[in-house]
Amino acid sequence: MKVTDAIAEALTKLGADTMFGVVGSGNFHLTNALISRGVRYVAARHECGAASMADAWARLAGRPALLTLHQGPGLTNALTGITEAAKSRTPLLVLAADVSERAVTSNFRIDVSSLAGATGATPARLHSAAFAFDDAVRAYRTARDERRTVVLGLPLDVQAGECTWPGDPDLRVAEPAGPSQPQVAKLAAVLAEATRPVFVAGRGARSAAARAALEQLADNCGALLATSAAAKGLFRGNPWDLDVSGGFASPLTAELIANADVLVGWGCSLNMWTTRHGTLIGPRMTVVQVDNDASAIGRHRRVHLGVVGDVALTASDVARLLVGEAPDGADGSPEAQGPHEAQAGGPAALRSIGYRSEELRSRLAAEVRWRDVPYEDESDGSRIDPRTLTIALDDLLPAERIVAIDSGNFMGYPSMFLSVPDQDGFCFTQAYQSIGLGLASAIGSATARPDRLVIAALGDGGGLMGISELETAVRLGLPMVIVIYDDEAYGAEVHHFGPDGCPLDTVRFPPADLAAIARGFGCDAVSVRSADDLGPVRDWLESRPGRPILIDAKVTSDHGAWWLEEAFRGH
Ligand SMILES: Cc1ncc(C[n+]2csc(CCOP(=O)(O)OP(=O)(O)O)c2C)c(N)n1
Ligand SMILES: [Mg+2]
Shortest CA distance to 85 belongs to which of 53, 41, 44? Predict the structure, then answer.
């Protein structure tokens, strides 16, 4: 059989069913071989967009997406999106066509393996027709089981070769590894002694199983529950949810985390963003990190205890041990500890345990959300305060949503003022801090979860950088909301350098009618200067739309956002 058929057959047998890309001669046959076996193909307009779509799709699906690329510029165009995926440990298999080994003078020749490796992705290659099946299967497994972005180089001569089908690939999936029992005992002992424990769950805890296990353990020891930005929404609905830890934390969240005596990061790197440059970690705080990747432990900050193991397995092992070892006065039995899952007949009176008390529960209900923090509305009639805009959208748009965010000064507003229903409600492609990926991330999210309204939140700079994918969103008939926080500038740079009196001509732009541009692509669109202008969005929602709506929000920009200071300290 043809090598392209063998690869397509192997990948579909392994479960690959969704592919994004841009087709050229080098990936034409393989892409068609996959489509003919039932794989859904989404054509993007730029390879970087295709990569971000695939990245977002895989984050939400929890299994590898395929990204199909032409040789040479097809891959180099995709590199920023691939780098974001690699840094985020997104399971992604890049099918990267490449020139034949002997085509040493080809215009398309680049060093695919070096490029892939330089981005943090895992390089792989088809070495011969006879072994192509095995190489492809191994590449898919690495992406799936090790959560890696794998770039599989596909030399044209090998693709064009013939091979024999060696039989179906092994379909077994690697089981998650549990922790060692001595480490479980140590963590249980730390939590048994804790008086104000806080859990911070990260990307490695983004699953229903991890949520259930962490909530159970937190109930047992009275912990409060926070997440990194990448896992925002994980504990939504839990009365002890603090939302995001770090630069996006509300004042109450920051206060409670900083006052913890024990902080446990679960599948969370505890990087400078999540810890606000370490300022949320008190001097006497005991810091624990649980991660299935030993090399992640202690990478961003020194920890007192590192536990290597799957988050859900570790949390349930520790919970089991803790019930037997509950300190005096704290009944560790799960039945007694689930205040938010109280018996029928109304909430049980809460016995204080760990950090939890009746008084704190009320305070959290009233104050923990950013939108409950008072602020002075700076809207002036011709431009809308981004906070006011975002709160109005939070009220207007259905709660079953996914918020996908681009990078820039604006990015905190949607991250902090738009609520999300769960850990699948937030697509945060910010591991590489690139602008221009947000729209494509939103399209990938909408492809993965057509049951939810997707909100793409972009700046005018990032929005225009990635705008070619507006055609993709229209062509796919996606009913998504694209909000552009339009300050007619690279606001992040304006607010970074403006206070020093630097010239800002390079980072300011004349006004652009982004609504008109969007209509040209076939979107619905509206320009918004005050909350009263949002009427067309309401009408659009009611019309059961088969196309996106773009909101060109002319926002106030007299000063930078407060989290931006944090960002610049990290440069
Ligand atoms: C690909 C890329 N180019 C440049 C930058 C530097 N950069 C960071 S934020 C920003 C401004 C983005 O402008 P906009 O999207 O309008 O958001 P704003 O900051 O104005 O809210 C730029 C240029 C980057 N992060 N990524
Ligand atoms: Mg801007």
Answer: 53
